[in-house]
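LOG
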Amino acid sequence: MLFRSGLGGGSSDAATALMALNTLWKLSLSAQELADLGLELGADVPFFLHRCNAFARGVGEQLTSLDLPAAWYVVLVPPIVVPTASIFTDRDLTRDSKSVTIESFSAASGYESPAEFGRNDLEAVACRLHPAIQAHVEWLKAFNKAARMTGSGSCVFAEFVTEAQARAVIASMPAGMRGFVVRGLDKHPLQVAMQQDVLEE
């Protein structure tokens, strides 16, 4: 079960519902109007309403489109649920990190992958509270040093160039560890489907 796993499932579902209703009800709401509605539902919803990959600022509503290389991801699923509030209210949570800008992200082009840029300030707290997350991060870092936790946890992920590389990692998981492989998308699948429907009409 991926409930509260840090993968943005609830936000993605909300964005999909908004896009679908906008089309089915012929509301003709603009992208900005949908994003404004989405922000009332959750900070990550505008990102999932965006038509492509994006760099997010603010609480997640200020988006700059990005072209990212094709990639595959290994996602590990520790057998725990992390209450988001317990992470954000923890006394040890770093609260003074310097804000990342699109300029600093662009300047990091020397990294082998965009996934190596930055860090997740929530990870240290989650790993302290839940050693299983730490164990999963450390195991995956043996295959990719940029492996890290998703959102406020509990899933852990790492990027790979090819599907074969990602599947080789999954095939080597210890007994009892769960995970899966996914392909990165550069466009929301529902956006693509709706565009095809419009063209066919």
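LOG (cont.) second protein
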Amino acid sequence: MKTLVLITSNYPFGKSDPFPGTELPFLEKAFDRIIIISQNSRSEQTHKIPGQVKIFRYNTSTSPAGFLKLPLLLAENQKLIKSIFQKEISFRKTTGTVLSLSMKVLLLRKIIKALQLRTFIIDMLRNENITRDIVFYSYWLNTGAHAISLLDYPGSIKIARAHGSDLYEEKADAGFLPLFPLVAENLDSIFFVSEPGKKYFMKKLISGKAGLNVSRLGISGPGPLLYNSGETLFRIASCSNVIPLKRVHLIIEALELVKTGKKIHWTHFGAGSKLEDLKIRAAGLKAKNSNAEADLRGFIANEEIMDFYRQNKISLFLNTSSTEGVPVSIMEAQSFGIPVIATAVGGVSEIVTEGTGFLLPHDFKPEELAGKIEYFLNLPPAEEKKFREKAFQNWKQKFDASVNYPDFINSVNRIFETAIKENPAD
């Protein structure tokens, strides 16, 4: 019996990390048993899960009982901790990076967190009487990937995806992401959601046993290609968490500068720490541009967002992030034939290509975004149709879930079959 142990940051709980849900229907068909370990122990469940999928919640905060067990954990793994710590330090020196004291403290914390999650996984598998033929799959290249790197079960494999925030060190708060050497050496494969992501990892001079592959995410479709839906508004949409890295405020600053006689209605889907600040800014938009209005929806379930796209002709989708992997939100927009303006960061250049929209430099000015919006506002219908059809075809060729996820599962199965041959059941 083949078991999938899928480790997520939040899914199926909370208002972020919905992405594994697009993959789960395909994984269901490929495995006899699926177990999800979510590192979200507080939020309500926001995504429906098939009844045959078992969910465990792991509290990433060390509990009082966990603190009592910490000395034993450290004592039992003293040599392992020292080895991992020293390998990280040595690796950083080869790349010209000398870790500060705060970085070393973070590194030690990450090693301990990995060991704690590893213990949780081992205990869970023991209670479930699962001993072999397991695919350990961390959806992010973070603590989940670190923890499964430290597991060893016969006839089993360990894989992880790498996106953006878990990959690009320059955008991390601490300026570095610990334990790249650990995952490179101990995972069977790392699946990057974009080619630039894979190249970035390789440029870090990461050597190890893990296979490095590109496996794009995908979304189901198609949506209707709306050309002349009777809309009198020029509708703009955006969808992201409202946090500093996403820089959603730049959309407001650009809309304040747009010169047009048409009415613009901008809808943003997503919540976050900066939502209240954004609402205050949005309240003053009308005063600076009488033709523009903002509608900040906050957190909205993905199904409702898709219904919004189906029922309204969206003329333009915007993404102003300072860092990204390959945004699923852009895939969703393109599946409805919506042109996109986005920053050229991470793997965005793989999805916003010639004829599907425009890329902006990382440090673009609001005036630049305003100019691109004006371009689409003044686009003749025939040219608009070309953009919409090209956007749709780009989704169909590169980001169709019905193609990408079966391909990913086939790759995983090949790795798994090799492991079974090397470690056959008794």
